[in-house]
Structures are given as structure tokens and as C-alpha cells.
Amino acid sequence: MAIRVLLVDDQPLLRTGFRMILEAEEELAVVGEAGDGLQALDQVRALQPDVVLMDIRMPRMDGVEATRQITGPGRDGPAKVLVLTTFDLDEYVVEALRAGASGFLLKDAPANELVQAIRVVAAGEAMLAPSITRRLLDKYAGHLPSGEERVPDTLGTLTEREVEVLKLVARGLSNAEIAADLFVSETTVKTHVGHVLTKLGLRDRVQAAVYAYESGLVRPGAQ
After folding, report:
1. Helix (H/G/I), strand (E/B), else coil: 104
2. Distance of CA 26 to CAs 4, 21, 112, Å?
3. If we measure between CA atoms, which residue out of 199, 198, 208 comes closest to residue 172?
4. Taking a C-beta distance cutoff of 8 angstroms, is the pair 80, 31 a contact?
5. pLDDT band, residue 150 (cuts 50/70/90)
6. In sequence order, what are the beta bridge partners of 28?
7. 34 by DSSP, 3-state: which?
8. Which is deepest, 21, 113, 137, 172, by most CB within 10 Å?
């Protein structure tokens, strides 16, 4: 079945461009468009998309609040949110990730990256681009706790190896890169990541990365 996509952006020209790219792919179907967060909520309820391509800065309701309502408790459907941001990495992206977005993508990303990102998010994974994630978290380190706060008790449920894996996820490494770093198989890494998400009650790698920074386990800028 085709992946159902809802386009949310207050610029009609951008929506048209995204639609042209996505409709060229047989496995993708653009089921609707919205020009602001309120329209997005209505469209999600009416159209039940698999993935919402969400802009951040929009009138009436921004993408952060719309994301929170789409992915939060009592949501109407299984829609995943892929946030669109500018090259300068909008400061609200951190809040969007906390609100429940499954990842983010630069607006000027190549068409093939856009298509692949939608496939990844629709499959239940997180679109966590390593280099962009590190830049984002480092740039907005001031939005995160100082590290003086008490470390959450939930970290104590992780094994030593799972803590290692969580730190590497927070640095933006892929499963293959983590496997090479720890000298284990990629399958083993996937198992560890799954255990981390389950034990900490997290949805995906994006939430895991944010959790690692917010808990003080990883310091912005640390290697």
C-alpha cells in the first residue's frame, strides 16, 4: 500500500514543489495539504495520513503545537511527523522533537533524501541525520539542562553496554557506525537500541538522543 503523506506548509509554492517530487514515486501518495497547524489537525483527522511533512513557523498554530497534538495522548491516528526546517536549523526544532516528531529534514534537501526520509519515518524509524543532529544539539545547548540536575532513576535500568549505545545514539551515530565503534554486529546494536527504548519508555532514536542530553548523560559538544 502507498504511504499516505500530508503536506503542511504556509507557502503554497513549497507545497506544490513537494507534491511534484512525491507524486513521482509510486509508493507515495499525497492525500492533502494544509497551510497552518489548525488545518493540519483537521486534515489528519479527516485523511488519516501515515506521515505529516510539517513546517515549523506558520500562522494560527505553529508546527510544534500541531506536532504535539498529532502525536500526543488521545491522538486520532498513527500519523508520524517529519519536521521541515531551514538551513540555519530553526530553534523550535528541539521543541518539535520533544513534542513527538520522528525527525527533521532541511527544506533544501535533495529530492531523494526527502523521499527516503518519508519512507524511514513511515516504517516507524527516526530520521536522525548525524551531522545535523550534532549541530542542532550543540547550537541550542542553552535550551537543555546544565547537567547539575539529578540523573533520572530510569538510567539505572540500563546495562553498561546499553548506556554506551545510548551515548553513541545521542552523538548521531548510525547502527553501522555504533557497531564499528563497539566491535559488535549491527544486529546486536539494533537489539541494544530496542532495549534502551523499551526500558526508558521512548518512541524512537530521536527521543533517545534528546533524553540523553536532557538527563545530563551526554554534554553538548562532548565527543
Report:
1. strand
2. 11, 11, 14
3. 208
4. no
5. low
6. 3
7. strand
8. 137
Please say whether the beta carbons of 155 and 163 come within 8 A.
yes
131-141 pLDDT tens trace: 566 666 666 55
Task: Tell me the C-alpha distance between 17 and 118, whole Å.
Answer: 15
Residue 167: which of 132, 120, 125, 205 has the closest Cα? 205
Q: Residue 52, SS3?
A: strand
| pTM assigned to the model | 0.71
Residue 103: CB partners within 8 Å, gap ≥ 6?
A: 82, 83, 117, 120, 121, 126, 127, 128, 129, 206
Q: How many CB atoms lie within 10 A of CB 120?
A: 18
> Which amino acid, 83?
V
Spell out a b/e string for 179-191, using b for 16 or more CB atoms within 10 Å of the CB, else e: beebeeeeeebee
User: Across-strand partners of 83?
Assistant: 54, 104
> Do 218 and 163 form a contact (C-beta atoms < 8 A)?
no
Joined together, the cell numbers standing for residue 158 give 540500563
CB count, 10 Å around CB of 157? 13
pLDDT at 147: 47
Using only C-alpha atoms, the chain has a radius of gyration, in whole angstroms, of 17
